[in-house]
Amino acid sequence: MRAMVLHGRDQALRLEHLDRPTAGPGQVLVEIEACAICRTDLHLLDGELPDIPYPVVPGHQIVGRVVSNDLVGLPAGSRVGIPWLGYTCGACDYCGSGNENLCDAAGFTGYTLPGGFADYVCADARYCFELDPRLSARALTPLLCAGLIGYRALRMCGEARHIGLYGFGAAAHVLAQVLRFQDRPFYAFTRAGDEAAQRSARSLGAAWSGASTELPPRSLDAAIIFAPVGPLVPAALAAVRKGGTVVCGGIHMSPIPEFSYDLLWGERRLVSVANLTRADGIEFLELAAKIPIETQTEVFALEDANAALEALRTGAITGSAVLEIGGGSED
Ligand SMILES: [Zn+2]
Ligand SMILES: [Zn+2]
């Protein structure tokens, strides 16, 4: 099978031909139809995640068809989504208290477990989500991380009504539709001068859009930071009201500059979101089908993964970059 493989920090992915994997106990072998690219893949390429077990096949927003299974409940031919959380121990305090996203022994798809920039992958069936086989594989992929992490970040905002979104990429594109569905006004913050992103936010119903250095027309009940940019933390704290929440949605962020305690004072809360739980996934995918969420995707071939990653890095992507890999046919 084809796979795009990362061999070390700051290297391009290399196209390689590997043996097709075999499903182990509790696993499914999945023929990959499409895999979306996430900013975390860039952090992986740049060596910004700890203890990367090279060589790695990245990719954790996988949609594909089950080819064979090791006596688990997902029959051959069924459509599955494989997200970032690929394994948890089930025995630690975190796993026992509904916080499996924080499990100390967790495995992550496309990082510590094989990922989706390939023709096939084996995954633990307990962490796969069943997906509608009638929908476009490509359109479903961004829901598996951009959508899920955005949704978990939103849950951290509690009952907040007026919500700021810092960074209007793949996650914000999905979350904007959830917010509109829930009738909660949202305010989109982009890089200064990024007219395209601001237009895109307004077309999805933003009450306001502008540069992240600006203050919105009213104080916010909560803000979610998707861009991995530390200086956005004090900027977002300055935009939320007393008692408001700022949620950091990324796995990595550049250093947060020193800021005055006044910005946090007034019972403002600053929290991060780490990974996802299976319960998040089930809840969010049901909601996504009900809305229904439409994703904006730009398609690349598997072999063009490096170009797709570079386009994401430079901000040239509206919505999500997706690798279209298999035909997705029934045979
Ligand atoms: Zn991701
Ligand atoms: Zn655990």
Descriptive notes:
The longest helix has 13 residues, at 278-290. The protein is an alpha/beta fold. The chain has two domains: 2-144 and 296-324, Quinone Oxidoreductase, Chain A, domain 1, CATH 3.90.180; 147-272, Rossmann fold, CATH 3.40.50.720. The strands form four sheets. Strands 3, 4, 5, 8, 9, 16 and 17 form a seven-stranded mixed sheet that branches. It has nine helices and 17 strands. One zinc ion is lined by residues 88-89, 91-92, 94-95, 103, 105.
Cofactors, ions, other ligands: zinc ion
- Please trace the helix and strand order, writing H or E for each element: EEEHEEEHEEEHHEHEHEEHEEHEHE
End-to-end distance, in Å?
Answer: 17 Å
Q: What is the total tally of β strands?
A: 17
* CATH classification class of the largest domain: Alpha Beta
Q: CATH topology of the largest domain, anyone?
A: Quinone Oxidoreductase, Chain A, domain 1
Shape: globular
pLDDT < 50 runs, ≥5 residues:
none
Number of domains: 2
What's the overall average pLDDT, rounded?
95
Largest sheet: 7 strands, mixed
Category from helices, strands and their pairing: alpha/beta
User: How much helix, percentage-wise, in residues?
Assistant: 10-25%
In short:
This protein has 331 residues and is of the alpha/beta class. It has nine helices and 17 strands. Strands 3, 4, 5, 8, 9, 16 and 17 form a seven-stranded mixed beta sheet that branches.
